[in-house]
């Protein structure tokens, strides 16, 4: 068992034991509440007729009951967190065993107009994104997809440092993910993100008077005095009732606007309950990498911790929500002007911190994405971080292999690609050409993102990637397919005017006849070479290999296939030269399609 697998197995046992203990505590908590209710009913029965005794009993019941409810809610939150932690570690074991098809595949991020997102199995079923992604926030998933597709070559060393740091922060990563998972309900089908919901509060118009807190405090003080006078028989119950309805009348004047505010913030309650925990985790994480320290600095506030500020808003939402309890809402508004008091707190918070909260939510999304990258590095201790250079050698890798190929099937290859150099790769069907293209492409994507790559060593000079491997054709006609290919090649040529790219092409100009394809492919390759570009072209057209005879900037490589004992054999090794063994005729005969 690998080290990561043993760590996850141990954590599953640990969290399962804790979960069982908390479950027992939840049962005891439920029984305590039931016992308190029955005891209160019994006391009310014996005290019936002594109205002051009954009211005092009911008051004590509510105080004790809400204390027990709060404890029960905290236990439930702990139980859900432990269950989430168990699931997180089970997921990691499953992925390490090669089972990840149940995870989100990121198909929504495929963009035919992007330099490479449609190709190289970056998104979609059984893709690298599906293998990599562990984000728990919708914004985090988008941030991760953006990191993989932004094609940026700056600050790679800083990205590497951040990923290395997070790979070692297992406790932080898993508790962050568990808390983030609890911020949304599985039944929540809304497409809105918490940041979207915050945006809806931008146009909220405050309605509470500037001196609401002073008025509410004064009113509550008078209420307390009247209640006290009533219990010492110095005030008739009629005065208590009149004062109660005065409070109801005052809050009733604002009922419509309070309802509107409550509806807006209610959707954010669960989010803020979890997000203040996420911010708290980030605030208390000891960091040294420049990128992570910069993210941490963006959630720092002078007067108070950001986690406390978010928690205050969560509590204010929860406090306003108590109005939905009919008895508490009636008494709270009658004696404390409850709705006005809590509405003022919410509106004051929005005025002071709404803009900051949006920034904090963006930071959390970025951290969520980097957690996935750190998790990937932790799961692959045998992968190496590329050594970043600035010279004519773009990629020099030894024992490189595609990250999604199982270890039992992996065949490693060494390769070195110089700036301004093109490889023409020929080979039989299924011999490994396309896999090699995807291996190199993913190494560039992973390197630019700051991830470690699957190789014994890797020297890398940062460069942008552009590909043409899967031309989209919605009309499924030969003419339209050929036009789509041409449009893609034009897209590549246009991009080369502004930036240097590493170009990966797989069997270009498939939508035309063989003679036209050969001539067109040769001319296109010559144009790329003359533009000082670098890249790889995989082809079945051996005539394209002649270009290498005209310039030393084009080199021929191949993947071989051999027929041994009437069986097709592939060694998947990257070799210098031109492939001489094709396998289409053999396979047609083998499958009895032709004689």
How would you characterize this protein structure?
This protein is of the alpha/beta class. The protein has three domains: 1-99; 194-367, no CATH class; 387-590, P-loop containing nucleotide triphosphate hydrolases (Rossmann fold). Helices cover 57% and strands 10% of the residues. A six-stranded mixed sheet has the order 6-7-8-4-9-12, with helices on both faces. A four-stranded mixed sheet has the order 1-5-2-3, with helices on one face. The longest helix is centred in the first third of the chain and has 46 residues, at 51-96.
What's the topology here?
Layout: H1 3-47, H2 51-96, H3 128-132, H4 138-149, H5 156-167, H6 170-181, H7 194-199, H8 212-231, H9 237-252, H10 255-266, H11 269-283, H12 290-297, H13 306-321, H14 326-336, H15 338-379, E1 387-388, E2 393-400, E3 413-418, E4 422-427, H16 433-449, E5 457-460, E6 464-468, H17 478-496, E7 501-506, H18 514-530, E8 534-538, H19 547-550, E9 554-559, E10 561-564, E11 567-570, E12 575-576, H20 584-590
Parallel strand pairs: 1-5, 4-8, 4-9, 6-7, 7-8
Antiparallel strand pairs: 2-3, 2-5, 9-12, 10-11
């Amino acid at each position: 068992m690998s080290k990561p697998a043993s760590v996850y197995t141990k954590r599953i046992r640990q969290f399962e034991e804790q979960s069982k203990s908390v479950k027992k505590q939840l049962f005891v908590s439920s029984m305590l509440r039931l016992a308190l209710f029955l005891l209160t009913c019994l006391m009310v029965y014996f005290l019936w007729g002594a109205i002051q005794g009954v009211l005092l009993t009911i008051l004590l019941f509510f105080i004790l009951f809400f204390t027990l409810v709060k404890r029960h809610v905290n236990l439930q939150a702990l139980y859900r967190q432990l269950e989430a932690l168990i699931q997180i570690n089970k997921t990691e074991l499953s992925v390490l065993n090669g089972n990840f098809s149940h995870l989100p595949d990121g198909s929504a991020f495929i963009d035919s107009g992007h330099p490479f997102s449609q190709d190289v199995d970056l998104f979609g079923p059984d893709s690298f994104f599906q293998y990599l992604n562990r984000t728990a926030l919708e914004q985090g998933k988008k941030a991760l997809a953006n990191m993989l597709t932004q094609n940026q070559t700056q600050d790679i060393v800083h990205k590497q440092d951040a990923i290395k740091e997070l790979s070692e922060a297992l406790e932080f990563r898993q508790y962050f993910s568990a808390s983030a998972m609890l911020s949304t309900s599985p039944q929540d089908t809304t497409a809105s993100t918490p940041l979207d919901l915050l945006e809806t509060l931008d146009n909220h118009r405050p309605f509470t008077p500037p001196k609401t807190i002073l008025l509410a405090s004064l009113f509550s003080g008078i209420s307390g005095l009247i209640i006290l006078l009533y219990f010492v028989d110095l005030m008739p119950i009629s005065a208590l009732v009149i004062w109660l309805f005065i409070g109801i009348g005052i809050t009733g004047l604002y009922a419509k606007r309070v309802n509107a505010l409550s509806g807006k913030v209610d959707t954010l309650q669960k989010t803020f309950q979890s997000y203040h925990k996420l911010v708290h985790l980030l605030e208390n994480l000891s960091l040294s990498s420049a990128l992570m320290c910069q993210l941490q600095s963006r959630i720092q506030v002078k007067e108070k911790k950001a986690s406390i500020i978010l928690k205050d808003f969560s509590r204010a939402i929860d406090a306003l929500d108590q109005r939905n309890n009919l008895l508490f809402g009636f008494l709270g508004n009658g004696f404390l002007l409850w709705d006005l008091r809590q509405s003022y707190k919410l509106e004051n918070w929005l005025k002071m911190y709404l803009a900051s909260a949006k920034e904090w939510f963006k930071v959390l999304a970025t951290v969520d994405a980097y957690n996935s990258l750190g998790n990937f590095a932790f799961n692959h201790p045998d992968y190496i971080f590329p050594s970043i250079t600035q010279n004519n050698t773009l990629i020099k890798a030894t024992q490189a292999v595609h990250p999604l190929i199982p270890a039992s099937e992996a065949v490693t290859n060494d390769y070195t690609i110089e700036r301004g150099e093109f490889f023409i790769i020929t080979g039989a069907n299924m011999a490994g050409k396309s896999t090699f293209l995807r291996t190199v492409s993913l190494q560039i994507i992973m390197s630019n993102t700051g991830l470690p790559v699957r190789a014994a060593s890797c020297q890398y000079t940062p460069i942008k990637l552009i590909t043409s491997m899967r031309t989209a054709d919605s009309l499924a006609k030969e003419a339209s397919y050929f036009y789509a290919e041409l449009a893609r090649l034009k897209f590549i040529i246009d991009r080369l005017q502004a930036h240097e790219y590493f170009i990966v092409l797989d069997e270009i100009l498939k939508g035309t006849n063989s003679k036209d394809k050969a001539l067109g492919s040769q001319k296109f390759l010559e144009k790329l070479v003359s533009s000082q570009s670098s890249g790889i072209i995989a082809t079945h057209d051996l005539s394209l290999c002649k270009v290498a005879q005209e310039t030393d900037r084009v080199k021929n490589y191949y993947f071989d296939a051999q027929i041994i004992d009437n069986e097709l054999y592939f060694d998947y090794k990257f070799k210098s030269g031109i492939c001489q063994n094709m396998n289409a005729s053999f396979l047609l005969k083998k499958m009895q399609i032709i004689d």
